[in-house]
Amino acid sequence: MLIDTHVHLFPDKLCPKTIEKLAKTDPNHHLTYYGDGSLGCAEKNMKEWGVDLGVMLPIATNPHQQKSVNDFAAYVQNHSDAFISFGTVHPDAPDYLSELSRIVEMGFHGIKLHPDYQGFFINEKRLYPMYQAISDRKLPVVFHTGYDPISPGCIHATPEAVVEMARQFPELTIIAAHTGGLYFGNPPQDIYLDTPNVTFDTAIASYTFAPEAYRRLIDIYGAERFIFATDNPWGDAAKDLAFFEAVGLTRDEREMICHENAERLIGI
User: pTM of the predicted model, to two decimals?
Assistant: First the structure.
């Protein structure tokens, strides 16, 4: 069983223009895409790569998008056997509490927040009521962490800030995308040890880590704190699986990272 816990999808009418526009925001790292961001293309890629289930992560990039973005996520979850979905809220939306309630009613499996696209720093105290509301509803939350090409000069979720926020909300299940900080190599490797409520998704790891460096992280934290993710359409599951072959996972570690941890965290 292979679950990809980090997939982005867009309505057909927005593809592929959206993907091409986003790719151009990353001149430094030459962001590659492996599809047009549509449901049909993602399903085709997943079948070729051997992915059994994808988790859609929608993002409301302005306060007025919550309902329409979540409605599309509900369509995907209800019409594709290949996907389940998270919902999203925007921190500046005055009705985010009612939207959280609707997200629960629609049967979504968690919340996706993106500090760069949504314009906040992860440890801002003004966001604490929102984090508490998500925690009270027992919804896991995925945060983009580290670098993002849309705001290359400003890191909205540094590892240190993620740790600060995670300690404030020990009951909140946090999934730190991109192994806790995309393109971050300077923080101490054990910086997340005192935050057991933080799990790492492996999206883009094959582009940003050497296999031996990732092996050290797994040894530090334990395989139970990692979940397989590609960032599809920005990632290629076949390349990621080859990367983990080089990392040298044991059979038990592979089962945990590829599906067991996600099943436990997300409630699959």
Answer: 0.94
